[in-house]
């Protein structure tokens, strides 16, 4: 085989992890099969419209993974590995505070950032780091032991890090290096058979099951792997019909008549998996842990800052209405009513009101119909869209939602854990996260905005050429 470019390595990496996770968690394979069936049927029913938010080839191969690490050093190392697959840190998520949940992690997502790269393979990994220094969760003495435990383990072998650096630098790798990179990079995310120190795991679990999953073991693993579907309601119904019980609700926006925005997700609950424990009396024996699960998602249009503010206000209004007993407590029904009251029903209106990100193409026939007045540097984008001259094509949302993420974490926890709110939490933000990761964490809005601006600039050039 010849030189493997980053996107080829990325596609193979996603494929290798998918095969591995399917062997580890068989229900995941069911989820992937059902997702494929849902997508085929959706495509058959809706034709080209079904591909407005991504080609069927892209969507069929599309996965996101979730992993969890314990320290800035581990975060920096995993960033080097992802760079070898053309995946870069985007977005900052603070799950310590997301809607009253108590998950002691901060997160970013590694993903391709260039539209062409996303189209080739959009594999992304939601990556959380234990906030092991947050005194609300960990007292000084526990913090010390946790830090020591994490600092002493090696998650990523040197050979992997070196190969990854070589690939990132050269924009790819020759075989057999590429195959070696894939073997090593997949291997580090495999569930380890190493005995788990029972007392240590349980001690951390009393604070947070997520803390135990991260800091209670000597290796890391894929927490879940998520296929993308074009109709998540259909998927949900089919999974339930197969007897696989899903979490109670689909997280994120409700199903409604208007355009799909952002991200809708649902999952099946964590399954008991056999693990080996080392007990305090020195004996080793089998036990079970429930931490890994399956999740599925449907992606919609990326919202601008204004659109996202509106979304957040709609979520808050849904909460408010639910709190006073509206809709008999059924969140999705209440949310749908809120959506219908506030969100435009068409993509065109989302675009005109500047709520969603779009790329634009020129409709020359509409230009002829509209005549001279719409040509000229002073004509606003909104007018061009209204006149049908600028035709919006949606930009798909490539990121995550903190509240849904917290909901997904929480749905798999058996108890609330512990948080001492008398203590002040450690401050983290996207700048601190960039220091942690050791490279700049991109703001997703900048990426969407750049893509939109480039297409608008091109449109303006075309209009100027017509005017000349
Ligand atoms: C990550 C949970 C967040 C999503 O899709 O929002 C997530 C985790 O459980 O480690 O994957
Ligand atoms: Ni996920």
Describe the structure.
With 468 residues, this protein is of the alpha+beta class. The chain has helices at residues 6-24, 26-46, 56-61, 72-83, 115-120, 140-152, 158-170, 177-187, 198-207, 209-215, 232-241, 305-323, 331-342, 347-352, 364-370, 381-386, 402-411, 430-437, 444-467, and strands at 4-5, 63-69, 88-94, 105-111, 124-130, 172-173, 196-197, 224-227, 263-278, 284-299, 358-362, 390-394. The chain has three domains: 4-300 and 398-437, Uncharacterised protein PF07063, DUF1338 (2,3-Dihydroxybiphenyl 1,2-Dioxygenase, domain 1, Roll); 303-346, no CATH class; 358-394 and 443-468, no CATH class. The protein has 19 helices and twelve strands. β9 (263-278) and β10 (284-299) form a beta hairpin. The mean pLDDT is 93. The chain binds 2-oxoadipic acid and nickel (II) ion (NI).
Count of beta strands: 12
**What are the low-pLDDT stretches, counting only 5+ consecutive residues below 50?**
none
Structural class, by secondary structure, is alpha+beta
Strand content: 15-25%
Ligand roster: 2-oxoadipic acid, nickel (II) ion
In total, how many domains does the architecture comprise?
3
Can you tell me the CATH class of the largest domain? Alpha Beta
Report the average pLDDT across residues: 93
Query: Within the CATH hierarchy, at the fold level, what is the topology of the largest domain?
Result: 2,3-Dihydroxybiphenyl 1,2-Dioxygenase, domain 1
Computed Rg: 23 Å
Q: Give helix % range.
A: 40-55%
């Amino acid at each position: 085989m010849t030189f493997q470019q980053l996107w080829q390595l990325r596609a193979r990496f996603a494929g290798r992890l998918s095969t591995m996770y399917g062997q580890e968690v068989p229900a995941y394979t069911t989820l992937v099969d059902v997702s494929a069936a849902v997508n085929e049927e959706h495509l058959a029913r809706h034709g080209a419209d079904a591909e407005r938010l991504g080609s069927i080839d892209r969507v069929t191969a599309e996965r996101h993974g979730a992993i969890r690490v314990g320290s800035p050093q581990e975060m920096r190392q995993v960033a080097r590995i992802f760079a070898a697959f053309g995946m870069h840190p985007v977005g900052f998520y603070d799950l310590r505070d997301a809607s009253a949940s108590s998950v002691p992690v901060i997160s970013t997502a590694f993903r391709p950032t260039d539209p062409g790269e996303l189209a080739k393979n959009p594999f992304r990994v939601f990556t959380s780091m234990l906030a092991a220094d947050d005194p609300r969760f960990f007292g000084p003495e526990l913090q010390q032991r946790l830090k020591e435990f994490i600092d002493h383990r090696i998650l990523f072998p040197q050979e992997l890090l070196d190969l990854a650096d070589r690939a990132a630098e050269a924009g790819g790798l020759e075989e057999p290096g590429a195959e070696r990179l894939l073997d090593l990079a997949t291997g580090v995310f495999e569930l380890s058979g190493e005995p788990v120190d029972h007392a240590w795991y349980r001690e951390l679990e009393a604070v947070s099951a997520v803390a135990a999953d991260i800091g209670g073991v000597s290796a890391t693993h894929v927490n879940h792997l998520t296929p993308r579907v074009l109709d998540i309601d259909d998927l949900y119904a089919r999974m339930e019909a197969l007897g696989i019980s899903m979490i109670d609700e689909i997280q994120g926006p409700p199903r409604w008549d208007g355009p799909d925005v952002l991200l809708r997700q649902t999952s099946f609950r964590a399954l008991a998996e056999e693990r080996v424990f080392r007990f305090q009396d020195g004996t080793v024996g089998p036990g079970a842990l429930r931490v890994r699960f399956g999740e599925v998602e449907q992606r919609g249009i990326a919202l601008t800052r204004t659109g996202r503010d509106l979304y957040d206000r709609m979520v808050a209004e849904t909460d408010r209405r639910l709190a006073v007993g509206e809709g008999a407590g059924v969140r999705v029904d209440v949310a749908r009513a809120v959506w219908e009251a506030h969100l435009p029903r068409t993509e065109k209106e989302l675009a005109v009101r500047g709520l969603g990100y779009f790329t634009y193409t020129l409709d020359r026939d509409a230009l002829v119909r509209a005549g001279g007045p719409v040509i000229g540097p002073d004509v606003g984008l909104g007018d061009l869209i209204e006149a049908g001259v600028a035709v919006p094509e949606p930009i798909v949302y490539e990121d995550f939602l903190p509240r849904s993420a917290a909901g997904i974490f929480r749905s798999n926890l058996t108890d609330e854990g512990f948080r001492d709110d008398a203590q002040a939490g450690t401050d983290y933000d996207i700048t601190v996260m960039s220091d942690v990761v050791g490279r700049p964490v991109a703001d997703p809005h900048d990426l969407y905005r750049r893509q939109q601006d480039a297409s608008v600039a091109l449109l303006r050039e075309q209009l100027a050429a017509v005017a000349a």
